[in-house]
Structures are given as C-alpha cells and as structure tokens.
Write a structure and sequence with these properties.
Blueprint (H helix, E strand, L loop, with lengths): L5 H8 L4 H7 L2 H19 L5 H11 L5 H18 L3 H22 L3 H15 L36 H15 L15 H4 L1 H8 L1
Length: 207
C-alpha cells in the first residue's frame, strides 16, 4: 500500500489535536504533520521571507533533513497556505481552548475558584455553549426536478393547433405573394454641383 503523501496528510489533519493524531497515525506521520504545522506558523509570522529563507529555517530546525526534504515541505506549505487561511481561525480557537483548559486545571489544583470561574466563562463564551443550536436544513434531501425541453404546449394547459406546420407554411406563402416586388436600380453618381454649393464656404476659409 502506497504511503500517503505529506500534502494529503497535512491537508486534512494539520490542526488536529495531538491526541487525535495519535489515535489515527503512527509516529512517522505525526512527525510529518507537526513539521508542516510548525513551518506553516513560521510562514504566517514571516510573510516577507523568501523560499530560500524557508529552506534555511527548516534545515536549522531539523538538521538531519536534506535540502530536497526542506524543498518538499516548502512546496507543501506554499500549496496549503491559501486553502488554510480560512482554517487558521479554527486552529487559534483550538489553541485558545487548550490554554483555557490548562489554566482551569492549574486553578483547580490550587483551589482558586475565581480563576476557575473566569476560565469556565471564557471557555463557554468562545464556544458559544449558551447559544441555541441552529437546526440545519436537510438540503441533501432536496431532489432536483428532471426538467425536459418540449414543444408540446399541453404542458402549459394549452391545446395544440391541428396541422400547425401546414398553417405556418400557408401563411408564409400568402404573405410572400402579397409582398411588393423590390426593383433593383443601378448606382448613379449624385449631381450636387459641389463647386457652386460650397464656393462661399471655401472662399471664407481661404480669407
């Protein structure tokens, strides 16, 4: 079975929690995802950096990686960056939740109920646990109507005219015969006597 590419792996799992990753993948695949995540965050923080600097940064973080590997990860991050811009908010939401839960657990260990209450309030506000759940409409159950083109007027409740094609032909023949014949004439040069008509205008312009 072919190994899943780093791009395919990161496209669906870049912002998954470590516990979720551990339940789905082995250590090698998790390591690939975490490297893409780290370099993705670096790219967001350093948008002015060039590809060469990306490769240098990658190799400084992972000294065992060769230049070709660094280039592969650069291509993955550059490919994912436009698509993941909408998911960045999801990542920061997850990160914030992790921080709040950690704060809550530390406050609980100290029996600091005030901090516990503030952490719980912040957690609930971020995740909108007090908001009513919006019922999703079952759009997937809507069946597209099978429309078909037809020249039968009965679908509109109109009875068709018997022998309509023959009647159309008869009317065309009738009106063609009644049409006045067009007489073709040859082109003739217009005799406008331009020299006499425009002589005053020419004389005034010359003055």
């Amino acid at each position: 079975m072919a190994r899943i590419t780093t791009l395919e792996l990161a496209r669906e799992n870049l912002f998954s929690s470590e516990s979720e990753l551990e339940s789905k993948f082995g250590g090698f695949d998790i390591d690939r995802i975490m490297k893409v995540r780290a370099m993705y965050m670096w790219r967001l923080s350093n948008p002015e950096m060039k590809d060469r600097q990306f490769i240098d940064e990658f190799r400084s973080r992972y000294p065992d990686a060769g230049k070709n590997v660094a280039h592969e990860y650069m291509v993955v991050v550059n490919t994912l960056l436009p698509a993941l811009s909408e998911k960045a908010r999801e990542f920061h939401r997850w990160r914030y939740n992790e921080m709040i839960l950690e704060t809550y657990q530390m406050a609980k260990a100290r029996k600091d109920t005030k901090t516990m209450e503030r952490a719980a309030t912040s957690y609930g506000k971020l995740n909108r646990v007090d908001a009513e759940e919006i019922q999703q409409l079952p759009f997937h159950l809507i069946v597209v109507q099978p429309f078909m083109a037809t020249s039968d007027p009965r679908v509109l409740g109109i009875e068709p005219i018997p022998n309509i094609d023959d009647k159309i032909k008869a009317m065309l023949d009738k009106y063609v015969k009644e049409t006045i014949d067009i007489e073709d004439v040859e082109y003739e040069e217009a005799d406008l006597e331009e020299d006499d008509l425009f002589a005053p205008y020419i004389e005034n312009n010359e003055d």
